[in-house]
Design a protein that fits this description.
- The chain is 41% helix and 13% strand.
- The protein is globular.
- Helix 9 links the parallel strand 6 and strand 7.
- It has 2 domains: 241 residues, Phosphoenolpyruvate-binding domains (TIM Barrel, Alpha-Beta Barrel); 29 residues, no CATH class.
- It is built from 11 helices and 8 strands.
- Bound molecules: 3-methyl-2-oxobutanoic acid.
């Protein structure tokens, strides 16, 4: 499916995502960090593009999401925004740019919106980020929440295993989700939690709940693009479905190019001026 054929592309808004939940239409979201890939996935009909701080892992090669800076996120987001005609572009506020104070959270969000042209921001946490969420929203910036496994807190958790398996943590997650909705968040990401809990949260909330490793009974799904396209080979969590094996495709294509260059087969007579 290509949505770029007509010049009248209907842009996805936060209101449309709400309507999608209301009528039971699932929301498809993927990450992107650069112009070329964002252009492809926008043309393929993705509803939401997340410029995730997972760029720290998949683009910059860091072990965690912690090192990526606000400037780097803005660079990735502005590249994505230039490519997108239809999808809603949500940009992660990276670690260290909203936890200090609600004023800092607002300043970071305003920089993202002004300098990248993104349409919304996402941040991790529940009650502990309430003031920041409210302050950002007061400036008219849509906010997406993120609960469950929150990778910016990896050194607190210690591992990337499933979160909220125990009752106490599950109750706190549901309370946080309701709080984020009450604050005015337009949607929430739930990462790596039991499917039964995600189902309960989705049913309890009016706003869309987007899952990653949260089972089928939520309002949409998000994956990291490099994972679902099979570019990152070693990351194999149970929740990940691979829709392509681009690692093999690229390795084969580059191998053939190297072979052709070495054999003086490329460029040939037709491939020169
Ligand atoms: O940064 C990211 O890619 C994310 C998704 C995993 C939801 O936050």
């Amino acid at each position: 499916m290509s949505v770029h054929k007509s010049s009248e592309v209907k842009k996805i808004t936060t209101h449309q995502l709400q309507e999608m939940k209301n009528r039971g239409e699932k929301i498809a979201m993927l990450t992107a960090y650069d112009y070329s890939m964002a252009r492809i996935i926008d043309g393929a009909g993705i509803d939401v593009i997340l410029v995730g701080d997972s760029a720290s892992n998949v683009m910059a090669g860091n072990e965690t999401t912690l090192p990526i800076t606000l400037d780097q996120m803005i660079y990735h987001a502005s590249s994505v925004v230039k490519a997108v005609k239809r999808a809603l572009v949500v940009v992660d506020i990276p670690f260290g740019y909203y936890q200090g104070s609600s004023g800092e959270a607002l300043r970071s969000s305003i920089r993202i919106m002004k300098e990248s042209g993104g349409h919304a921001v996402k941040l991790e946490g529940g009650s502990e980020v309430k003031d920041s969420v409210l302050r950002i929203l007061s400036a008219g910036v849509p906010v997406m929440g993120h609960l469950g496994l929150t990778p910016q807190s990896i050194y607190k958790f210690g591992t990337y295993t499933v979160r909220a398996k125990e009752e106490e943590e599950a109750n706190k997650l549901l309370e946080d989700a309701l709080l984020l909705q009450e604050c005015g968040c337009f949607a929430i990401v739930l990462e790596k939690i039991p499917a039964s809990l995600a189902k309960k949260v989705s049913a309890s909330l009016q706003i869309p709940v987007i899952g990653i490793g949260a089972g089928p009974d939520v309002d949409g799904q998000v994956l990291v693009m490099q994972d679902m396209l099979g570019i990152t080979k070693d990351f194999k969590p149970r929740f990940l479905r691979r829709y392509a094996d681009l690692n093999t495709v690229i390795t084969g294509a580059v191998g053939n190019y190297v072979k052709d260059v070495k054999a003086r087969d490329f460029p040939n007579q037709e491939e020169k001026y």
